[in-house]
Amino acid sequence: MITHAARQYLDFEKPVLEIAARIEDLRNSLANGETVAEKHLAEEIARLEIHQARVNRLLYRNLGAHQKVQVARHPQRPQADDYIEALVTHFTPLEGDRRFGADAALVGGTGKWLGHTPCVVLGTVKGKDTASRLARNFGMPKPEGYRKAQRLMHLANRMGLPVITLVDTPGAYPGIDAEERGQAEAIAASLEVQLSLNVPLVSVITGEGGSGGALALAVADKVLMLEHSVYSVISPEGCAAILWKEATKETVPLAAEALKLTAKDLKEQKLIDGIIPEPPGGAHTAPEVAVARLGKAVQVALAEVQRAGPSAQARQQKFLALGR
Question: Is residue 97 part of a domain?
């Protein structure tokens, strides 16, 4: 559980922040022995904690699309490496695409999901501070990342192992060097590989699912989303820049609403298969709870695919039917 002092609050969370700051002040007074009214202070803290939880629940129950985008991008949100560390035992990372090099934005390897299901796991990682974000290229894979994903998916197919992907990326890296090495082809090839696998494939959008860079890891038998994650063909900022010629605090929320990018919207449109509930306040406020829920949801999804019989043809038909 992240404490008030360590938690980074978003703009729309001001009511929660004010209550949390008041609770912190009262706790400091109690700890420093500044008053003899200890019983009164303890009662007031308990009352404020109940009030804070209620405000937090109401706030997150009615988030708009742009607010969901902010939560999905929260820097303290659990990332693929956090999920792998908690949920995958005997994890053995595998690096390189055997053509150019390693890509730190995309991690992958073999292990046992929840300690008993052998699998191949792939995930994008954004980084948690300036140094790691630069090293991870802010979670934007280059062609060598997608070709590494293809290599590991082929490995899973040969060994009969299910594939689990954890997606949190603004999109594929759009730099000149990536384009020179065939970024578009690498993404297209990843789509093709996923459609050809004869093993269970489960994907979870854990934060941002940005455009083809996310889809390159999410053509799955079961596509799940965390409750406050988003998945879209373009970012709200990019959409606003196209529609209104500028991305401002007025146009970006309008674009977010129009894109229908929330988990609820996508489930209603039958573009995803399930939503994983998050703790009140988002996954970043109680990472251990979010991790446990994701682990269980993926295990259930894998079992459902296994019972139905993993089939490349069924997966192809599923995606061909989208939007009809």
Answer: yes
